[in-house]
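Annex B. Sample input.
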Amino acid sequence: MKIKLNRPICFFDLETTGGNVGKDRIVEIAILRVDVDKKESKRVWRVNPEMEISFQAIEVHGITNEMIENEPNFAHYSNEIYQFLKGCDLAGFNSIRFDIPILVEELIRANVEFDFTQIRMIDSQVIYHKKEPRNLSAALQFYCNKELKNAHSAMDDTIATYEVFKAQIEKYDDLESDMDFLNKYSNRYNNLDFAGKIRIDNDDDAIFAFGKYTGQKVVEVFRKDKGYYSWIMKGDFPEYTKKIFTKLQLSLINSK
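Annex B, continued. Sample output.
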């Protein structure tokens, strides 16, 4: 089925310094504009966010701080970008929750007068999730061809999870049945705590996975910023995370 357009639509994607809509900035924006006559035009802007790119973000998109340090900031391109988008519907993947809100924040910072009140927003991720659910019921149907009749009953969900797990091992030849392998495969990030605030780097050292010291070694930060540990202890962090930070702080003290 062909797309019916009564005005242009812009598909776009952002690469950013991190995942916080209110704080993080754009480092790259790519736009594919499709006009009513189906003519396509593409533009890419890489910008200096004027803040550090987080370690996690660099792992995702590969754009380092050094790569954008000589690029103009977003404000420099803001009017050009908005004119390219102006009067168009907007579409993306997870765009309604992430890309559009971040773009709006950047336009506000750049003092661009914009109006998105009449545009339509299309999110392919929402369509994907509605058409291809990624919950336990969908997994049981996909892997085991069974219906989960009592979803959210703890025991029924537990049994369904076990059946899905066994079916996954059978289905994928590259999934080893060894628990060490599956533990590593299941952990997307090499977290040291359960909340994902502390990770292990390639040197097997603990690094921050949040905040202004993201990607930096915890012990080195505690050594140079002596008040940061106290700030964490007073903050709204999980108790287990605090215990890990305390252990790292004690290792620093004991090494003196």
